[in-house]
Specification:
Porin, mainly beta, single chain, elongated, about 190 residues
Length: about 190
C-alpha cells in the first residue's frame, strides 16, 4: 500500500512540475515575505512536531515564532509537552538579490511546559533485596532565553532548507532535571507572499 501511495504522489508531483513555468520575475522568492517550516528530524523520530513561522523584515533581518508539541512519554524521557518560542534573526548575507538566507544568528525566548519524573524519599524492597525508589510525575513550566546559529537555503520559487542549533538557559528553574533547552533541527519549508 505504501508503495502505491508513494508512486502516485511521485507521478502527480512530476506531472505538475513538468507543466508549470517558473518565471523569475513573477512571484519569485525575491518578493516573498512569509515563511513556514517543519522540523523534519523531530517529526521523523516521533519525538515532536515543530512548526515555525518567519516574517522577513528585510534582506538582513527576520522575526517569527516556533511552536512545538511533544509526543513522547515515559519515565526515561524528559517530556516537553508544548513550547512557544518567539525569535529574532540577523542574516549575514553577501548577495544583493534578496535576503533572509545564508548564515544567521538567532535570539529566542522559549516558554515551555512538560512533565518530569522525580525520585521520592520512599522506596520499596523486592524479594531479592533490591531497593527501588518511588518516582513522582510532576508538571513544570519554564522560560528559557538563548542564542542559536544556523544556515538557510532558499531557491527561487520559495522552497526552504534550514539547519539550526542553539541553547537557552532556564530562568524560572521549575524544571529540576535540566538547566536549559536545546533548540535545533533540520527544517524544510516554503516562502510565500
Amino acid at each position: 500500500m505504501k508503495k502505491i501511495v508513494l508512486t502516485l504522489v511521485t507521478l502527480v508531483s512530476v506531472s505538475a512540475l513538468a507543466q508549470t513555468n517558473f518565471p523569475e520575475s513573477m512571484n519569485s522568492a525575491y518578493e516573498k515575505k512569509h515563511e513556514i517550516r517543519l522540523g523534519a528530524v523531530k517529526l521523523l523520530s516521533g519525538h515532536s512536531l515543530e512548526l515555525s513561522y518567519e516574517r522577513v523584515k528585510d534582506r538582513n533581518q527576520g522575526y517569527g515564532l516556533n511552536f512545538l508539541v511533544g509526543f513522547q512519554s515515559g519515565e526515561d524521557v524528559l517530556n516537553q509537552n508544548i513550547s512557544i518560542a518567539p525569535y529574532y534573526r540577523f542574516y549575514f548575507n553577501q548577495s544583493q538579490e534578496y535576503g533572509a538566507k545564508g548564515m544567521f544568528v538567532e535570539g529566542f525566548a522559549d516558554l515551555y511546559s512538560g512533565t518530569e519524573y522525580v525520585y521520592g524519599n520512599s522506596y520499596t524492597v523486592d524479594p531479592y533485596g533490591y531497593y527501588y525508589y518511588d518516582q513522582n510525575k510532576e508538571n513544570f513550566t519554564d522560560l528559557a532565553l538563548g542564542l542559536a546559529i544556523g544556515w538557510k537555503k532558499v531557491n527561487t520559487i520559495g522552497f526552504v532548507f534550514e539547519l539550526k542549533a542553539g541553547y537557552g538557559k532556564n530562568l524560572i528553574q521549575q524544571n529540576t532535571n535540566a538547566s536549559g533547552v536545546f533548540k535545533g533541527d533540520i527544517s524544510i519549508g516554503y516562502r510565500f507572499n
